[in-house]
Amino acid sequence: MKKWRKLLYVVASAVLLISVWQLVIIIGDYEEALLPSPLTVGKGMITVISDGTILTHMRISLMRFFIGYFAAVSTAIILGLILGRTNWLWELIDPIVQVIRPVAPIAWAPFIVLWFGIGSIPAIVIIYIAAFFPVLLSTVSAVKKVDTTYLKVAQNLEIKQPQLMYKIIFPAAFPSIANSLHIALGTAWIFLVSGEMVGAQSGLGYFIIDSRNALDLDLVLAGIIFIGVLGLLLDKAISLFERWVERLWGVQTN
């Protein structure tokens, strides 16, 4: 019953969005060249799906995303676990992180393109930067907040490193780390598109820029819709991963 209710809400949300979209066109008296109608965009979506164009760009974007995101998450968690347990080292590294973290990853694009050229690597590097810092900071904070009771029990049981790290500290800190996985996914997906707009010749970001240059605004909006839907599916996938970890470790994730 709950699944049908969720599906009903999804359908209702889509109908509401399309209705508001069409209403804006009618009230604003926009021409198709300025704001394509839902019907026109729908036809454009069918066209790029049927000829395989958008599927190719999706595959490339997802490949770049997964490489950059998983590389960032894995290194950020490992470093966060170490830095969270080594106070003097974190005190040394923290000012550097706080200076670099607020800089938008796309600001590094000129240097990244110069260093790595045009292609997939610049987009992957931008994704990595976007996802790295939220997970790192969350992991460090979560490790520092681990209940000392767990550590005392581990000490009594003579659990040493590295077992202490992956059997006690990481499972205890994971519920807090899980929140950062969502944040990192959202920022990484946003900057993937930005990276593909400046440093790639393929992918969803490039598809939007190429469509804009050709004045195919219906395809621009189609690309935006595809990006939003894929981002939603990726976020749901992270939620499924969290629930799997919850069942595996018997911990409650948020």
Name the descriptors:
single chain; 82% helix; 10 helices; MetI-like fold; mainly alpha; 254 residues; 2 domains
Plain-language structure description:
This protein is mainly alpha-helical and 254 residues long. The protein has two domains: 1-30; 41-249, MetI-like (MetI-like fold), CATH 1.10.3720. The protein has ten helices and no strands. Helix 3 (53-85) crosses helix 9 and helix 5 (109-116) crosses helix 6. The longest helix has 37 residues, at 163-199. The two termini are 23 Å apart.
Task: Explain the layout of strands and helices.
Layout (H helix, E strand, L loop, with lengths): L1 H27 L9 H13 L2 H33 L1 H14 L8 H8 L3 H25 L3 H9 L6 H37 L4 H10 L3 H33 L5
Helix pairs in contact: 2-10, 3-6, 3-8, 3-9, 5-6, 6-8, 8-9, 8-10, 9-10
The CATH class of the largest domain, by name, is Mainly Alpha
Terminus-to-terminus distance = 23 Å
Number of domains: 2
Structural class: mainly alpha
Shape, per Cα inertia axes: globular
SS element count, helices: 10
Q: What's the quick description here?
A:
This protein has about 250 residues and is mainly alpha-helical.
